Amino acid sequence: MKKIMMNIQGMIFDLDGTLIDSMPAWQSIGSEFLKKHGITPPDDLNEIIKTMSFAESARYFIDFYGVDLTEEQVGDAINGMIRENYAKHIPLKPFVKETLDQYLNQGIKMGILTATHKSLTELVLGRFGLLDHFEFILTSGMTGLPKSQSEIYHQAVAQLELPKQHIAIFEDALYCIRAARESGCHIVGVFDEASQNDWEEIKNSSDCAIMSFKELLG
Predict the structure, then answer these.
(1) pTM, two decimal places
(2) Looking at the DSSP assignment, which residues form a beta bridge with residue 137?
(3) Are strands 167-171 and 10-13 parallel, antiparallel or unpaired?
(4) Each residue's pLDDT tens digit, 54-82
(5) Tens digit of pLDDT for each residue in 164-215?
(6) b/e string for 4-26 if b means 16 or more Cβ within 10 A?
(7) 21 by DSSP, 3-state: which?
(8) Angle (nearest 5°) at CA 208 between 147 and 168
(9) How far is CA 127 from CA 10, 20, 25, 99, 217, in A?
(10) What is the DSSP letter of 197?
């Protein structure tokens, strides 16, 4: 593991399920949103929307369920529903702060690539004193791209201004790992309970995989 990381000069981190333990908060948010609008959600709603960007899921709620709002209004409503969790409750995953502090001290350039709104990302990273660790935050909303498309990874890699062979991308979701592979960077799979059914495939699709950030310390 540490041998693979020896030549790494830059890192791109997913946020939810990778750095923060937020997936349980997200898994019910779509259903809660539809219920607020008098709509009974299907049992598999989370599975349907999990690979969508904010804009895509908003459009899905509008087109498929007839929610009488604009895409922006849907996004604002969902952000508002989950904002308190990011402001007060969602924890970092174990050993994340220690690992990020270590890489910052080593002069490694780091960035965030997430489907989560930038304001929520800044809110939770700021709460843990980590906002200044990162060169950039790039989101699906800023690019208009979901994380199932490889182009969003190319855009993130370009922001680090480093050769791709010296960059590691950290992801917990299999569909993201598959898209990230096309960047030519090193891929680090991160275990999260929300993706545990894909764990064997995540390990096979990554250059290395970690159960905990503790494995990267030292």
Answers:
(1) 0.89
(2) 112
(3) parallel
(4) 788 999 999 999 999 999 999 889 888 89
(5) 999 999 999 999 999 999 999 999 999 999 999 999 999 999 999 999 999 9
(6) eeeebebbbbbbbbbbbbbbebb
(7) coil
(8) 55
(9) 23, 12, 17, 17, 22
(10) G
